[in-house]
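Need a sequence for this fold. Nothing fancy.
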């Protein structure tokens, strides 16, 4: 791919300055950029290393003194990181998957494949499945019985979409994503020790060990438009109703979404986070890496859950939560600071006790 600086700036809606005819064939970090690369230096800190490379052009920031940096040309977006989202998409060469349907793909005669669909070798499209126009199904993927995949989907290699799953337009799934496994839902004939402990906050009572009976997952998964799911992440089927993921929600790698969970629109779920069954996550929520949300909770709109936090109770809208158990960030930080002072407090108390109990009564 080769574009002039002027073409790139026009495509991403940014200002171009200098010799805008300079041709760009790749993106690079400033220190390793060569003459034909566009150096990505969206902050002054990154721009400091431009001199170590050979870039003639760079993407900087609005108002940057590009000439002082020794460049022939520059692109000056108002929000450089946001501009990167457009620029990297523009320069993405893709995965090299071939056009059309590979001879090694297995497609049931009842499946509906719309125009301009690419299906890679070893992929299986089940009976009654629908694949939307312009979708790319990578190698070794599986799309199950009566599953529906909207237009413009991109399934990387080894993605699995279970039976009856409904997914909107422009869905992206990274390698190994699994949509539509059964929920982890089991029950005992009598009240189990786990249930008793939960009700009593710790006491199992006189319950006996029992075998677990499986509850089947009948509800499927419903996913909106422009959703992305990361590598090796899983979304379980609902029990009776569907597990639901709202429009534009982005799920990172190694994430688990439990049965019956509902995620609103524009939610961001970072790596290794988990949402337990029947929990409702509002819109614009962010779950940091390794965050966990217990079952049957409600998380309000625009909540931010810090990394490695564990949420054990419902959270109202606009809160920022941190810790285990998660509390409001300001309270958590205050508690942590107090905890760090404990050794000093213990030493002070010991000194006070010694001064009081060893003092001379006549003093």
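Here you go.
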């Amino acid at each position: 791919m080769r574009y002039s600086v002027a073409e790139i700036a026009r495509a991403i809606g940014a200002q171009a300055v200098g010799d805008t005819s300079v041709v760009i064939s790749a993106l690079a970090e400033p220190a390793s950029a060569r003459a034909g690369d566009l150096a990505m230096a969206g902050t002054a800190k990154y721009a400091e290393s431009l001199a170590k490379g050979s870039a003639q052009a760079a993407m900087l920031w609005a108002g940057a003194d590009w000439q002082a940096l020794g460049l022939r040309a520059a692109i000056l977006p108002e929000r450089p990181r946001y501009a990167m989202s457009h620029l990297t998409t523009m320069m993405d060469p893709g995965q090299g998957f071939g056009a059309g349907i590979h001879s090694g793909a297995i497609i049931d005669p009842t499946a509906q494949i719309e125009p301009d669909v690419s299906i890679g070798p070893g992929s299986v499209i089940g009976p009654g499945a629908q694949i939307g126009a312009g979708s790319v199904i990578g190698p070794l993927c599986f799309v199950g019985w009566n599953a529906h995949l909207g237009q413009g989907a991109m399934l990387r290699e080894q993605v699995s979409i279970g039976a009856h799953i409904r997914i909107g337009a422009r869905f992206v799934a990274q390698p190994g994503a699994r949509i539509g496994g059964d929920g982890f839902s089991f029950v005992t004939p009598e009240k189990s020790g786990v249930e008793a402990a939960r009700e009593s906050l710790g006491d199992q009572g006189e319950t006996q060990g029992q075998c677990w009976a499986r509850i089947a997952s009948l509800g499927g998964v419903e996913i909106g438009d422009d959703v992305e799911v990361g590598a090796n992440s899983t979304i379980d089927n609902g029990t009776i109703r569907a597990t639901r993921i709202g429009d534009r929600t982005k799920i990172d790698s190694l994430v688990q979404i439990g049965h019956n969970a509902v995620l609103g629109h524009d939610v961001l779920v970072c790596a290794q986070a988990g949402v337990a069954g029947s929990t409702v996550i509002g819109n614009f929520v962010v779950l940091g890496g390794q965050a966990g949300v217990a079952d049957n909770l409600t998380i309000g709109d625009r909540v931010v859950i810090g990394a490695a936090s564990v949420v054990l109770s419902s959270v109202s809208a606009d809160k920022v939560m941190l810790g285990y158990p998660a509390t409001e960030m300001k309270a958590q930080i205050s508690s942590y600071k107090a905890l760090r002072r404990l050794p000093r407090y213990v030493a002070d108390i010991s000194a006070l006790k010694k001064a009081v109990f060893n003092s001379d009564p006549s003093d």
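For context: The mean pLDDT is 95.
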